[in-house]
Amino acid sequence: MGERVAVDEHARFVRSLLASLGARPTERVPLDDALGRITASPVESPIPLPPFRNAQMDGFAVRAADVAGASAESSVALPVVGELAAAPGTPEPLIAGTAVRIMTGAPVPDGADAVVPVEDTESARDGATVRIRRSRAAGEYVREAGSDLAAGADVLPAGIRLEPRHLAAAAASGLAELLVRERVRVAVVSTGSELVAPGERLAPGEIPDANGVALVAAVRAAGAVVRHTARVRDDVERLRVELDAAVDAGAELILTSGGISQGAYEVVRELIEPLGAWVGSVAMQPGGPQATGVYRGVPLIGFPGNPVSTQLSFALFVAPSLRAIAGLPPPRSERLPLAEAITSIPGRRQILRGRRTPDGTAAPVGGPGSHLVAALAASDLLIVVPEYVTSLDAGDLVDTVDL
Amino acid sequence: MGERVAVDEHARFVRSLLASLGARPTERVPLDDALGRITASPVESPIPLPPFRNAQMDGFAVRAADVAGASAESSVALPVVGELAAAPGTPEPLIAGTAVRIMTGAPVPDGADAVVPVEDTESARDGATVRIRRSRAAGEYVREAGSDLAAGADVLPAGIRLEPRHLAAAAASGLAELLVRERVRVAVVSTGSELVAPGERLAPGEIPDANGVALVAAVRAAGAVVRHTARVRDDVERLRVELDAAVDAGAELILTSGGISQGAYEVVRELIEPLGAWVGSVAMQPGGPQATGVYRGVPLIGFPGNPVSTQLSFALFVAPSLRAIAGLPPPRSERLPLAEAITSIPGRRQILRGRRTPDGTAAPVGGPGSHLVAALAASDLLIVVPEYVTSLDAGDLVDTVDL
């Protein structure tokens, strides 16, 4: 069995193995597909925002000088020489001493330098004349071209996770697509002769493959994409075929479950140990057996076959790297009082599953067994018991991490 | 213009208009497509978890009574009569006084009631005999069928948002698909003769349609799906065609932008007001013009044409209902000190865009203008200034909502 590797050391090693994934290739994606992606570079707006000088209110475009003295008591009458909607076209310049009816967003004609909102005006019944009842300074209710952003300025910085407001600003800048980081491509391979696809009828000794479903979902939840999935019986050559298929499909990371402990049919161990991979034991419960290696140039992380072990191992060792690459925050971690006393094995970090109770304590759910997949589903946090702790009382503070 | 409706009253009205969307139809989806969906009913496991009694460790399956006196000093020798892997098949019953080598997960044979881990044993060189060096009580290192969950018990409750651990538990229960709530189907229709698709060359007076992109992304971020999108010039008949197409495509909610203010080309107003819709003004800035109605039985929410107004209106009035239906939490809201003094219009709730500064204050970004789409993209929170407040000093506490 050899020495057990410390959890933090294993985590560091996995992180270093995955570090190369952080240098992402880039791709151009249409705005409608870019939600949640990460900008690969600063995004320059080719046009000013707004693109042209336009009206901020429905009203009348005027020369401010022509209405300088206007008030409710002493309104200024101007002939209305036209009407401007928010629509394609270039308006004629405004002739001094006249007004043009204008809609919000319509281009303000050359010569005009203010918009008088409609509520400060009174139109003649035939619309030919407007009485301006309030003076407006030059620039009032006029949005200057570039007043939001100058042409050539960055509308978005590099490295942000794209939310709707970012896509809106890119669209307003006249961009149809954005340069984003490619998502990490992951392969998920379950091993075990006892496994069948969930939903298939179970013969004696068979169980549904929960690890494949769990890892596919966990990879996606961590912002990566799944490029290859397989389920293989305990047969080294079948496993080799699937790992080759994963590499050929462009996987940048291979995750396996099962086949790495001390038993007689440890198919992952048999295949990758001769290639120089490490297959050993980490000082944690559940999830002791772990493996790390490189298969045809692709990092491979091997998890144990127990579904709880695999899920917690992914959460502890792989999710942090993938989430960081995808611009996702780490899960909330918090110190909470234990709802009840617990015991733990000395020398191993125990990861208990639990629930946050209404009164803010952490209550263990379902015991330490690595097969308690329903209990894990009923949990909403993990309770971390340090290696040197063998018992804790109700009320003792423990580190918890949200699931 | 008429009276301005209070923001909270409008929010309540929109919420009531969308309340019927909360009664979701259901659909069956494969586990691999169920991440983030909401369970429509409790999910029963048709099998016990684990499905059969199996070994928790690699070791030897024995009768506990046969090894009752075993210790390091006085080990008990048993003939090894077979080997059991985690693989299909039903093991022969264990004969009293013998042991079977067993791998983790393999079925424990009838007659055996304990597993002695391999580290507490010593095998003869030919494997024919094992010396048991530690007694084990009945049940030790044996996972009983149903010890995680009984057959017929609920493995998942109704109404939860499916995370990887839930899908893993459903898979372990032998389920291939889950009954989930359908996502809300939304149509997004931008109006305005000045609008062109983002990326198209702009003629004078034209601007890219940012609202379509913004609303499509915002609908998805709120957990709903987009069923129809359109961009129409200011032409009532064209708008009617697109709203009909939206209804025919199965949209349950129609969102429009533009065409609802006081100008001369208010196409949404012209179409829906005669149908009994409300088109009016809400006491907020930006986003004063708003519309609500029902088009061929489908709720329609009309937003103003300014992209900032549309985005904030969606966030304030529509996102809360859609997020609640999708099981998403509301955005974080917090009271923060203002980084600088601000002024506000009396009688209107002002929604300023801002950033959380490193020292935990809320700093306004870009001013109140509803055209400042780049400034909104550079913001990470909204600052809510109440209707009755006309000025605030630096350091005054304000309500903020995370973007």
TrEMBL record, chains A, B:
Which Pfam families does UniProt cross-reference here? MoCF_biosynth (PF00994), MoeA_C (PF03454), MoeA_N (PF03453)
Keywords attached to this entry = Magnesium, Metal-binding, Molybdenum, Molybdenum cofactor biosynthesis, Transferase
Q: Does the keyword Magnesium apply?
A: yes
Q: Which EC number(s) does the record attach to this protein?
A: 2.10.1.1
GO BP annotations of the record are:
Mo-molybdopterin cofactor biosynthetic process
Q: Which cofactor does it need?
A: Mg(2+)
Q: Which pathway, metabolic or otherwise, does it act in?
A: Cofactor biosynthesis; molybdopterin biosynthesis
Broadest EC class? transferase
Catalytic activities: adenylyl-molybdopterin + molybdate = Mo-molybdopterin + AMP + H(+)
Q: Kindly provide the name given to this protein in its UniProt entry.
A: Molybdopterin molybdenumtransferase
Q: What species was this sequence derived from?
A: Agromyces flavus
